[in-house]
């Protein structure tokens, strides 16, 4: 660990026996304005001209005033050119903040002189409260002293832990041992931060995280932003007391890996109590793990029941045992009742349930309608039969039968060998994307499309001629996705009457060729997509009896 000597402003490295130190929590400006490890190591004369050097000086001076010889600032105390050191630092960050003698929270965009009569309500506009990394920097330290733009002291919060009297804490002035006014000021500041962040006063006062379910802690991070998407996960490692390697470039997979590490450490069904916003962000199929902390919005009154039935990650997906309640209108769908309680204001206890659909064998499922969380009476969960289920996170395929309800897109294609095929006219109850040759459907609604196509024979030994065909595509819950054809003399328009259409255009209509469609379904980014290919094949040769010799 590299620390700044507050007397010399030089870096010193410690491998064992780290001395007491102050630690800075702040928001980064532009990278070019911040002092990095290499610049701090060289102690270049130009260092003091950088905007970020000012807060390093202020932190060092405050630490010196508090009787500390060292301080730590993340911009310049981590060699980010070393992937090994960066990984060690991020995995150790929570512990470093927790072990600090005091944490100075620098709110650069808040003027302390504006906080009249201990009214902290204007703190809510501070950028510091919206950043992902500052969540653990708020919770982990034993002492947090807040400063405004000109290093004017705003107030202090100190956690009430027995360990707070070790490692030289008595040498740092604290509101906990101050006057009644200082203690009241600390209580007001704690209340304000609780209202801004949603973090209970119990956590701010004691630092206890063990008694809170996973979803509640995710809720604290739901509205925070990070510059790198991977940092949405990496900034929460300490909150959940897990470690994992850093893979910048993996994108949202980092948050999935974080949840997998949580699963290995703790049995807690509240991890699955998340929901997407209905609309564009609402995929058809998903796994049990959330793609983002933003989807955890139910954590305030949530309790986990201390489930003892383990679950595990397998090559078939996440394996767990849950009560399944059949859904009346679809034999392939169930409500999976999670081992969580949600106590309403009326005192009634309900369990959250999510909707699962069988997508493979008897035990392979996917989550559907992830925008919905359904509350079930607790007695219903006690009566339901528990079953083993496997749920993959990334769903890549699904039976065609699923198209009847959850189809989001129909992509058209053709692979003719003897005809050139043109789309002349397309009308449908969905949205037609001419560039992508794709219909966009509304889920859970019937769909019908009427298409006029022109087939031009292309073999050179036939005189050119055109055949106009009406192509009907229809989807409904009862019969699924169907396709039919009819001849259109001279390209006449036609009505989409499936009763007049045949699943195949017979050979006599196309000079001995039969026209048909092939349908396959895939899941792309959580959406069920059907590919419908227009094909042709020669009329089957008549069977002949071999002549006698």
From TrEMBL:
Residues 253-277 form the DUF8212 domain. Signal peptide: none annotated. Pfam families: DUF8212, HET. It comes from the Eukaryota. Residues 21-114 form the Heterokaryon incompatibility domain. Transmembrane segments: none annotated. InterPro entries: DUF8212 (IPR058525), HET (IPR010730). PANTHER family: HET DOMAIN-CONTAINING PROTEIN. This is Beta transducin. It comes from Fusarium albosuccineum.
